[in-house]
Amino acid sequence: MCWNKYLRGVAGAAVLCVFIAAKVTGQDKDIPKELYTASGIPDSLKEDANSVVRYSYHEITIKGSGKATVKHHSILTILNEKAERQAIIQYGYNRKYDTYSFVDIHIYDDKGKMIKKYHKSDMYDGADDGDETLVSDERFLALKHTIANYPATIEIEYEESLTSFITPDDWDIQDHLEQSVQNSTYKVLADPSVGFKYKCKNISLSPKKTDDPHYEVFTWELKNLKPIKKEENVRGWTVLPRILFSTSIFNCRGYPGDLSTWQSFGKWMQGLNTDVGALTTQRVLEIRKMTDTIKTDKEKVRFLYKYMQQSMRYVSIQLGIGGWKPFAATFVDDKKYGDCKALSNYMRALLKAVDINSYYAVINAGANAEPADFSFPHNYFNHVILCVPFKNDTTWLECTSNTQPFGKLGSFTENRKALIVTEDGGKLISTPKSTSDENQFNSEVHIKLEADGSAKAKVKIFSTGDIRDVFVDLLPQYKADQQKESLLRFLNIKQPSSFDFQLGTDINGTKETSLDLDYDKFCDVMAGDKQFIRPRVLSWWDITVPITEKRKADYYFKFPLQESSVTTIELPTGFEVEAMPVNVNLKFSYGSYNINYAYNAAKNEVISTAKFVLNNQLIPAAKYTEMQQYMDGIAKAQNKKLVIRRKA
Amino acid sequence: MNKIFTLLLLVGITITVNAQTVPSAQLYGKVDQADLEMKSCDFEKDANAMVLFDKGSVYYSNDLYSVVEEVHRRIKIFNDNGKKEADVRIEFSGGTRYEYVTGIQAQTINLVDGKVEITKLDKKLIYTKTIDKVSSEITFTFPNVKAGSIIEYKYTLTTNSNVHIPSWDFQDNIPVRYSEYSTAIPDIFYFRPQPHLTMPLLKHTHTTDGRSLVDGASSYPYSDETEIRAMANIPSLPDEPYMSSFYDNVQSIRFQIVSIRPIGGFAKVGTDTWAKVGGRLADDDDFGGQLKRKLNNEEAIINKAKALKTIDEKIAYVFNEVKTAMKWNGVDHWYTVDGTSRAWENKSGNSAEVNLILYHLLKQSGVNAYPMVVSTRHHGRLSGFYTSTSQFNRAVVYVPLDTTKNYILDATGKYNLYNETPEELLNSSGLFIDKQKNSYDMIFLKKDLPIRQVVLINAEIKPGGKLEGTADISSTSYHKINATERYKRDGEKKYIEYLCDGDNNMKISTIKMENMEIDTLPLRQKLAFNLELAGSDENYIYLNPNIFTSLKNNAFLSEHRATDIDFGYLQNYSINGIYKMPAGYKTDALPKSVTIVMPDKSVSFKRFVGEQDGSIVIRYSIIYNKPEYSKDTYPDFHEFIKKMHEMLNEQIILKKS
Known about the structure:
The complex is a heterodimer.
Chain A: H1 43-46, E1 51-64, E2 67-78, E3 88-93, E4 98-108, E5 114-119, E6 124-127, E7 135-136, E8 139-144, E9 152-162, E10 171-172, E11 179-190, E12 196-201, E13 208-210, E14 216-225, E15 242-247, E16 249-252, E17 255-258, H2 262-273, H3 281-291, H4 297-311, E18 313-314, E19 317-318, H5 329-335, E20 337-338, H6 340-353, E21 359-363, E22 383-390, E23 393-397, E24 417-422, E25 425-430, E26 440-449, E27 455-463, H7 465-474, H8 480-490, E28 498-507, E29 510-519, E30 525-527, E31 530-533, E32 555-556, E33 561-570, E34 575-579, E35 584-588, E36 591-600, E37 605-614, E38 618-619, H9 624-638, E39 642-646
Parallel strand pairs in A: 1-11, 7-19, 18-20, 26-33
Antiparallel strand pairs in A: 1-2, 2-9, 3-8, 4-5, 4-9, 6-8, 10-15, 11-14, 12-15, 13-14, 16-17, 21-22, 21-24, 22-23, 24-25, 26-27, 27-29, 28-29, 30-31, 31-39, 32-38, 33-37, 34-39, 35-36, 36-37
Helix pairs in contact in A: 4-6, 5-6
Chain B: H1 2-9, E1 15-16, E2 31-32, H2 33-37, E3 49-60, E4 67-77, E5 87-92, E6 99-112, E7 115-120, E8 127-130, E9 136-141, E10 150-159, E11 168-169, E12 176-186, E13 189-196, E14 203-215, E15 218-234, H3 246-249, E16 252-260, H4 274-283, H5 298-307, H6 311-325, E17 327-328, H7 340-346, E18 348-349, H8 351-364, E19 370-374, E20 394-400, E21 406-409, E22 428-434, E23 439-445, E24 451-462, E25 466-475, H9 477-500, E26 506-514, E27 523-532, E28 540-543, E29 565-566, E30 571-580, E31 585-589, E32 594-597, E33 603-612, E34 615-624, E35 628-629, H10 634-648, E36 652-656
Parallel strand pairs in B: 1-2, 3-12, 17-18, 24-30
Antiparallel strand pairs in B: 3-4, 4-10, 5-9, 6-7, 6-10, 8-9, 11-16, 12-15, 13-16, 14-15, 19-20, 19-22, 20-21, 22-23, 24-25, 25-27, 26-27, 28-36, 29-35, 30-34, 31-36, 32-33, 33-34
């Protein structure tokens, strides 16, 4: 289990810990020779594939709650350099609860001749913390084989023993896009007492059930699965075939639990949190005193959330029952830091101090991350937030951010399911989905053109929601020079001769930023009495998507948004408009774009107003081409020029 | 020394009210009021945090077997974004107990309502982790940290070796007000300090104290040579585009053991000239010992190479064989790990293995080749006076041709050319080994000829704003290497997408790559394209002739520069376009013919524009006359590059007549 920080900024592609738990086992010693040779791959599996699972046999024996052994045996052929990284073999483990008795890795050439052997002792044994996490007790074993010639075949056998888990690892039938599968078998032997269950995702595949005196035995078999083509902006969970597994009873680091329902899973978490949820009496009194003049509960929550944001600091320390048990509220209160669990639990304690009920809520974080499936209780989660259940006004709090507006979640946790831990156990409920008007980029621009082609521009930007993160989270981390450079790049601003900016007020979730730009030469081209001008200073939306014949998967933006701008272009004295760009109105299924130009003769100004709306972050594959043409249309409209000339 | 230090600590927390005038280090717990009230770093206003002082003291243990480094560091946090400084990681070689850390103390100091509040770090919250077999890490985070906090910590790092003095960086990625390094080294050990300092030292003192080493009944006198070096107001070192490396730029000092005075049976170690280093490499099992090792089935390659006529043909052939057969495993060392024979069997190895194989085959084929050790750009430029093998991280092959020409061969890059010194080795030195003649010498690795990219475009502008035509792109040297790599690695389809640069208006219908496999000729890319001139409207056609170049984005938007710009080589670009005008249109605006030159003539940009027989001819030429641009000339450079990009983006404008 890995808990992640609320990742800040637009660039926050959530680096969620992926436990590539390829846990499987070798029994079948009579593997046909042709599964080791490159020539044994049917042509249909080579097309669009960078690697082929030639053979995979994975057997997990679930002996009791949280107790299992795994045997794995697989053969993977890597066809080309694009799958080079699949020759890096990596398994997460834990010295106490998850160990590998052996790992044997054999490498074969295209003819099926063995050219190299590795064992567990050849593997790098490292602490699995990365840059983000300060401490955890997770480790990993890794081996990087350097492939000299393609195709190369890697055979892996290992045995693993687990004494703690909440759910067994999923079966990732295809680990990667552009990977085909020739033969794959997955076998589960489960003690009837554990209540084994499974659920297929992106595939329909039924197991064969066989009799055994001690176990329920399920065997899935699969042959000749074609690869899935790589496309831009696809979420892996929406296309890759997997089978999820779960048991009714589990045991995590000696703490038994019940996962047969969401309610029972929540009970387990409630158990872990019981002794860490209270503040000292003195602090409770202090906090009451801080809030006693505030009238409504909602305002109290707002006040205490701000108090928490101002006093606490996020630090990733993943210890305690495999990273499930939060630090005590008193610890956080004293040390002034915590991870997502600790801070959410602390926030809950603050609210409890003033008799406001709230729920610890576990969730799968990351932009457009997979939502928990209501029909299949399972451990989908990697993050914790807090839910405050006001009547008809459920409020959600992200406690790891010092800058998030009160009650806003953002693309990191919105629009999915959270498991809230209530008095009666767990309940799976939806987090809200933001709309385009919650993520706004609005600008007011005044450009004063001069006869010599120079110009001065004054810009005011108002940003909200996920766009605001850039201005309140990302930029303040940088030095002044880098902030300026980033603004020019993010906002597609032509390089000015001199440039000042101010990160301004941040009121009710709207961040104001102002820019002062000076240009020696603002116009694109000056010729004779004319100036050809790009009639805008900046734009947030500046993307086009590639032309694709047949889009297969849905396309994901990070969040819905809207941009609007009003640009006033003051013409130099003695100049007039020769040509104005045409007005454009574009629409597509999930948004619209329009830009209008008007000339104010009295002031000798051109005023353009533009509005862009993206109503939904998910664009269904069937609408891809429509979107591509629409985006191209916007790019074209944004490219048009204003031509001015000296009056005759 | 230890005792004195602890004694002074007992003095405890006191506050000096007067602000410091000359920066210095202070005792643990002794804090200036002014520092607590400070709102920003006075020499770097935009810093989120700063190091108030960083103090290191190195001395030997009484038995002279180990080296002890005491570190005391104090940081001021100005705002929320500086709070990440409160997460501390101390890395050390703990796996073999080669190094260990003791005596960690840490505390947070806040000013609360004018009173000093100290929060000590709970010892239970100091975590020691085993990273792997060799490295360990101590991590902790400070309690009660807020904007305005001062945090400080100290620890002692002991190294179980008496011939290694830790390096010291005076500079950091946040500004440092004061950094002091004190070394007390017995005169038994002679270290040569390698200062890498461009800023002046605030303090540099040298004192000598008599000591004695007691060994049973005997006592050996020696002296402690104590040097203290300090620096003040050191700006942060950012990561900038085209900076050579962090290592080359950081204000630092490193120490190299040169000799040990033999008392009590110590042996002399160390090297003091490059010739001696070379001699040692020649005798090293993992370097010199690998040179003559036979490789399985090497005869086939050697015989074929021998049959070739010229040296160039032999080199080209063997280089290509090794490049194809061997896959570099991504590891850089100057020495072999598995050895050349095993690497040859496995078809993969580290950079020394790959290139010593290359050396061996060339030598056996009758090529006058020498093994050479070098340092990659990332690893840092070689310092001539610091005669330590730790400066090297790769082995390559050196082939002198005549007094002025040589080849530096490196088969680790699949797309490297035999007649091009790899980019990451330029402007540093390499030490070549000629064991036979007992000759070992340093060669400066540079590229004299500029790298060239020439784009020829011949196209017709269609009414309504379409461009249709052909382009011929000729690339030498690193341009060729990069394009070939991209084409071969990603495939033609992806490569075309890359050339189109995300512009859906650009369509490339055919592309032909020529001379990819011939190292001596420039790469030619011949392509047919059509481009919708998107800005065009009813009356005007706008054409930006800056197409198929890598000159669209300006990497030098930053207004200031902390490090020199190091391109590594000279560069020439030329873009020549001939555009046939459509009937019924005439030019409305043409960019002017113009030349701009940097004040010191180190870069020039020329644009020639003409109109002839219904066609527009436009030529750009950009010449970078220097591989490096000093940060001192950055204001000029910044302005020049800005102007140049403006001019590169000026359009040709046609109007319907």
